[in-house]
Amino acid sequence: MDYNEISFQLAAVARRAGGFIRQESATFNRSHIENKGTHDLVSYVDKETEKLLVAGLREVLPEAGFITEEGTEGADRAEEYNWIIDPLDGTTNFVHGLPVYCVSVGLIRGGELVAGVVYEVVRDECFRAAKGAGAFCNEQPIHVSEVPDLDSSLIATGFPYTDFGLMDDYLKVLGAFMRGSHGVRRVGSAAADLAYVAAGRFEGFFEFNLNSYDVAAGILLVREAGGRVTEFLQDGDPLFGREVVASNGLVHGEMQALIGQVWREQGAGISG
């Protein structure tokens, strides 16, 4: 199967879905917000965008199933190929009229990522990758940065917003990165964070309590752009592990060592 061609078609579907989000952003009313959990927001835009994506992706690869955030009816998993969909990563940003928010879709065969697209709606940037074919932004090749050490790096992260059980431990990690880098940024979309690592805008990104649909496309983008993506304390595949460290590869060891030192000291057991 030609995963590069599939990624082109996926990008077209993601752009159409992003066009719908852009259209709705002009007139969005906060009265349309629902709460899936504490501070976990969803709107009709998320749900309708997911339906658009499911319909479009069925045309791209009819035999593929779906792993979705919003549970679109009839979008069930399949045995071999599955699309992993986040229709609007950064819903809170969208609701407040704040960039950045993205459409994020990855394709897995078994458990292996083979194609992915992150479409950042406001900047109209389409990040695309296919296994073995490299990574691109608006069809220009992208690569992770060449910054060699953490001290000279700009790092991205995400903040807990529903489960605060590890807040104290997380803040210690955050403080260590603040002291040991050029700075830490919180964009509000893990998909964008990973895409920006792939494009060399960030040297690294770390976050926990993530879902597969938050990171699927971004993981492949970073890897195809020459970077590295793992779990916090181990080198396993983070797709379903709920924690991610992504980097340009050069600062990865420093990032894992810093995180590992703090988690071990605090006994957080995030990887357990």
TrEMBL record:
Please name the top-level EC class of this enzyme.
hydrolase
Catalysed reaction equations from the record: a myo-inositol phosphate + H2O = myo-inositol + phosphate
What GO annotations for molecular function exist for this entry? inositol monophosphate 1-phosphatase activity; metal ion binding
Co-factor(s) = Mg(2+)
Stated EC number for the protein is: 3.1.3.25
Task: Name the InterPro entries on file.
Answer: IMPase, Inositol_monoP_metal-BS, Inositol_monophosphatase-like, Inositol_monophosphatase_CS, Inositol_monophosphatase_SuhB
- Keyword annotations: Hydrolase, Magnesium, Metal-binding
Highest taxon listed in the record's lineage: Bacteria
Binding positions (Mg(2+)): 69, 86, 88-89, 214
Family matches, as Pfam families: Inositol_P (PF00459)
Does the record's keyword annotation contain DNA-binding?
A: no
* Gene3D superfamilies to which the protein is assigned, alphabetical: 3.40.190.80, Fructose-1,6-Bisphosphatase, subunit A, domain 1
Keyword match Hydrolase: yes
* GO annotation terms (biological process): inositol metabolic process; phosphatidylinositol phosphate biosynthetic process; signal transduction
Stated family: Belongs to the inositol monophosphatase superfamily.
Q: What is the protein name for this chain?
A: Inositol-1-monophosphatase
Q: Organism source for this protein?
A: Hymenobacter actinosclerus
